C-alpha cells in the first residue's frame, strides 16, 4: 500500500482506494480535471464536503505534503461550516412555530456531522 501511495503521489485518483485506511469517513476525493486540484472529499454514503481553498497536488513535491494540506482543509472547511450552520439554525430554533421547510432547507445545506454537532451545541445551550 505504502509503495503504491508513494509511487502515485502526483495522481490522487490512483490512491483513492487507500484513503479509507488513512482518513476515517473519507471514501473519495474530488479533483478538477487536468488542473491538478482537489476540490472536495466524499464519504461512502455519498455526502460531499467542498473545500473553500482548493489543494494543488501538482505543485506539491511529496504525497505527504498534499495529504497533510488536504487534512487541514477538511478541518478548516468543517469548522467554518459549523459556524455558518449555527448562525442559520439558531433563529430557526428560537422562532415561535418552527417551519418545517426552513428546517429541511437547513438540513440539506450541511454535512451530517455538522448537523449533529449543531444540534448538540444548541441542545446544551438551551439546557444551560
From TrEMBL:
<dbReference type="GO" id="GO:0051959">
    <property type="term" value="F:dynein light intermediate chain binding"/>
</dbReference>
<dbReference type="GO" id="GO:0045505">
    <property type="term" value="F:dynein intermediate chain binding"/>
</dbReference>
<dbReference type="GO" id="GO:0030286">
    <property type="term" value="C:dynein complex"/>
</dbReference>
<dbReference type="InterPro" id="IPR026983">
    <property type="entry name" value="DHC"/>
</dbReference>
<feature type="domain" description="Dynein heavy chain linker">
    <location>
        <begin position="1"/>
        <end position="80"/>
    </location>
</feature>
<dbReference type="InterPro" id="IPR013602">
    <property type="entry name" value="Dynein_heavy_linker"/>
</dbReference>
<dbReference type="Pfam" id="PF08393">
    <property type="entry name" value="DHC_N2"/>
</dbReference>
<protein>
    <recommendedName>
        <fullName>Dynein heavy chain linker domain-containing protein</fullName>
    </recommendedName>
</protein>
<dbReference type="InterPro" id="IPR042228">
    <property type="entry name" value="Dynein_linker_3"/>
</dbReference>
<dbReference type="GO" id="GO:0007018">
    <property type="term" value="P:microtubule-based movement"/>
</dbReference>
Amino acid at each position: 500500500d505504502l509503495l503504491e501511495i508513494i509511487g502515485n503521489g502526483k495522481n490522487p485518483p490512483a490512491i483513492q482506494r487507500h484513503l479509507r485506511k488513512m482518513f476515517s469517513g473519507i471514501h473519495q476525493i474530488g479533483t478538477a480535471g487536468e488542473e491538478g486540484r482537489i476540490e472536495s472529499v466524499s464519504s461512502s454514503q455519498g455526502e460531499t464536503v467542498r473545500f473553500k481553498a482548493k489543494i494543488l497536488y501538482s505543485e506539491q513535491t511529496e504525497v505527504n505534503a498534499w495529504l497533510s494540506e488536504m487534512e487541514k482543509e477538511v478541518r478548516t472547511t468543517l469548522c467554518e461550516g459549523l459556524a455558518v450552520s449555527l448562525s442559520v439554525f439558531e433563529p430557526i430554533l428560537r422562532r415561535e412555530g418552527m417551519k418545517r421547510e426552513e428546517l429541511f432547507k437547513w438540513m440539506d445545506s450541511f454535512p451530517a456531522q455538522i448537523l449533529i454537532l449543531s444540534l448538540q451545541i444548541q441542545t446544551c445551550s438551551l439546557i444551560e
